[in-house]
Each structure stands twice: as structure tokens, then as C-alpha cells.
């Protein structure tokens, strides 16, 4: 039973039930793993492109009409030479660029803007790295028959249905006018069918944009689910950030040893060591060039206090027993810092006694 409880605790600790930490989110973002919907890009791109066609359709049609007029009224009567071919190619390229450039520019801006809206500014080459795990046929089969694949299939069918219904409805509403275009001029027919095409494109783009809201919500939910962490993961992350407790303890112990060694080297220069007499030892020094008040050069309790007293004795530093003062100095003082103002009088009396004693000696 005890073993079973341990197994259950292990599985519970390893179950990914916790929200991702900020560090985990940052790490996944660096790898290019962010919630993103391609439908947002597609819908935004289509609505911008068809909007541009709606606004600049007259200008584009006029430019194309001018190209045909020049080609069939001027170029057709000229002799075909190398210079004429070159000039025709350059002029036609310029005219076509005038038509294509606005659409390409808007498409580029739409693509960048839709990505910025979803993921912000992000530069990473992690998705481009070679990963042999992606070639694993077993994992590939699991992805094909996964719940995510079914969701993507449902989304595709939904998009096709929406776009199909919208385009069919627009064609059905305008079917009578379409039939009458055979009696109209070419220019009127082209204008009508161009308008119908733009209306279908804008309506389909709006439908895709509405569907993309649902898709982005799902992508965000799925991303949050995939980056969930277990309690063990969170503990391991804290260990990595803050350092292993055992290593930290060893570092602190080393630091204490170095600090104690440095303190012991200062004791021979102290003016007095105040003790309580066995548990506490505080080495005091007064140097007007360093501080206007006496300051602590070393202090310790128990074993460290004993070491301070031994070093003081071997270097003929005066030791004075004052139990309440030693305990109070230890609690309210720091190494290499002046003593608190409340101890000025008591320490001054001790130093005066020490100076008188050294003067007699």
C-alpha cells in the first residue's frame, strides 16, 4: 500500500496540470512556438487585397486599357527591330508594375501586420533547424490521426462550406444580370464581372476573418495545453534558476570560511577583543583615518569566538570581559562597519581602559 501511494504521488507530481511559468513561455517563444492562426493571415490578406482592388480598380483598368490601345494602335504598325522590342518590353514592364506594385505592397503590409497582431516582434531560427524526429513515421502517423488533425479537417470543411455558400449566393442573386451581359458592351461586362468578383472576395474574406477568431481562440487554448507544466517541472525550473540547494549551501560554507579567514587576519591589528567570556568575541579597532567611530573587524560565537581569542592572545591584543556589551555588539554590529551610536560610551570606556593599560605596560 505504501508503495502504491508513492507511485500515485509520483504520477500526480508528474502530471502536467499547472500553468506555464513566464520562463517556460519565454523559452517556447524563443523556439518559435506561439499561438498563431493562419486563417487570420489569410482573411486579413484577402480583405486588404480585395479592398485595394475595389479602391484602385478604375486606375488599374485604365492602365491596362492604355497598354492594349498603345499595343494595337501604335506598336502594331511599326517595323519589328531590336530597339523597338527593347523599348516595348521596358514600357510594358513599367505599366504592369504600376498595376501589380500596389497589390504586392498591400499584401506584404497585410502579411506583416497580421503576424504582428498575433505574435508581436519575434526573430528565431529554431524552426529552421534540422530535426530528425520529424522524419519518424510513427510520430507522423500519430499526428495524422490525432485530435488536432481532426480539428484541422473540420476547419477546412467549414471554410470551404462558408466560401462556397457565399459565392454561390452572390452569383445566384446576380444571375439575371449576368445573363444580360451578353447584350452589353465588353467594357460594361468587364466592369460588372470585376465588381461581382470583388464583392465575392470581400464577403469571403470577412467570413474567413470571423472564422479566424474562433481558430485563434482554439490555437491559444491548444498552445496553453501543450506548454502546461507539472509540479516537478516547476520545482526543477526553480532549482535551475536559483541553483541547486546543496551547491548553494557549499558556496555559502566556502564564503563563510573565506570571511572567517579574512576576519582572523584583522584580529592582530585590533585594539581590544570584548568577550562574554566564552560564547561571544568581538574585535574592535579605532582608526581616525578610516572612521570617526570605532568599528568591528571580527566577531563570532562559540568556536569562532574561541579562535578570535586565541589569535588575540598570540598577538598580545587585550581581551576585556563585558557580557552585556559583547552580546549587544554581536546582535547590532556588522563586520567593517562602525559600531552603533548607542555603544559609543561603553566602548569608549573599554578603549580608555585598554590605552591606560598599554601606557602602564
TrEMBL record:
One annotated Gene Ontology cellular component of this protein: plasma membrane
Entry's transmembrane regions: 40-60, 99-124, 145-172, 192-218
Keyword Transport: yes
GO biological process, one term: bacterial-type flagellum assembly
Source species, domain of life: Bacteria
Gene3D superfamilies for this protein: 6.10.250.2080, secretion proteins EscU
Main location: membrane
One Pfam family of this chain: Bac_export_2
Recorded family membership: Belongs to the type III secretion exporter family.
Record protein name field: Flagellar biosynthetic protein FlhB
Natural source organism: Halobacillus dabanensis
Amino acid at each position: 500500500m505504501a508503495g502504491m501511494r508513492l507511485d500515485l504521488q509520483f504520477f500526480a507530481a508528474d502530471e502536467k496540470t499547472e500553468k506555464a511559468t513566464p520562463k517556460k513561455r519565454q523559452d517556447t517563444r524563443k523556439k518559435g512556438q506561439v499561438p498563431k492562426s493562419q486563417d487570420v493571415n489569410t482573411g486579413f490578406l484577402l480583405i486588404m487585397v480585395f479592398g485595394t482592388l475595389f479602391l484602385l480598380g478604375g486606375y488599374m483598368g485604365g492602365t491596362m486599357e492604355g497598354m492594349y490601345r498603345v499595343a494595337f494602335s501604335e506598336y502594331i504598325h511599326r517595323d519589328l527591330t531590336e530597339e523597338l522590342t527593347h523599348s516595348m518590353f521596358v514600357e510594358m514592364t513599367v505599366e504592369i508594375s504600376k498595376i501589380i506594385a500596389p497589390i504586392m505592397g498591400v499584401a506584404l503590409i497585410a502579411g506583416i501586420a497580421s503576424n504582428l497582431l498575433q505574435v508581436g516582434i519575434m526573430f528565431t531560427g529554431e524552426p529552421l533547424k534540422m530535426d530528425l524526429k520529424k522524419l519518424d513515421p510513427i510520430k507522423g502517423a500519430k499526428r495524422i490521426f490525432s485530435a488536432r488533425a481532426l480539428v484541422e479537417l473540420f476547419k477546412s470543411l467549414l471554410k470551404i462550406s462558408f466560401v462556397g455558400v457565399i459565392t454561390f449566393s452572390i452569383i445566384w442573386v446576380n444571375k439575371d444580370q449576368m445573363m444580360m451581359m451578353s447584350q452589353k458592351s465588353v467594357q460594361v461586362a468587364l466592369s460588372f464581372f470585376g465588381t461581382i468578383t470583388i464583392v465575392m472576395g470581400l464577403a469571403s474574406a470577412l467570413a474567413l476573418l470571423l472564422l479566424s477568431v474562433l481558430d485563434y481562440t482554439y490555437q491559444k487554448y491548444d498552445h496553453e495545453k501543450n506548454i502546461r507544466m507539472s509540479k516537478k517541472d516547476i520545482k526543477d525550473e526553480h532549482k535551475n534558476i536559483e541553483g541547486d540547494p546543496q551547491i548553494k549551501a557549499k558556496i555559502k560554507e566556502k564564503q563563510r570560511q573565506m570571511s572567517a579567514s579574512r576576519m582572523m587576519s584583522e584580529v592582530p591589528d585590533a585594539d581590544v577583543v570584548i568577550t562574554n567570556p566564552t560564547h561571544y568575541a568581538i574585535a574592535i579597532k579605532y582608526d581616525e583615518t578610516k572612521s570617526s567611530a570605532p568599528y568591528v573587524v571580527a566577531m563570532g560565537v562559540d568556536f569562532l569566538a574561541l579562535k578570535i581569542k586565541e589569535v588575540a592572545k598570540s598577538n598580545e591584543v587585550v581581551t576585556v570581559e563585558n557580557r552585556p556589551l559583547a552580546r549587544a555588539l554581536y546582535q547590532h554590529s556588522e563586520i567593517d562597519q562602525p559600531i552603533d551610536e548607542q555603544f559609543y560610551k561603553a566602548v569608549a570606556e573599554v578603549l580608555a581602559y585598554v590605552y591606560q593599560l598599554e601606557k602602564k605596560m
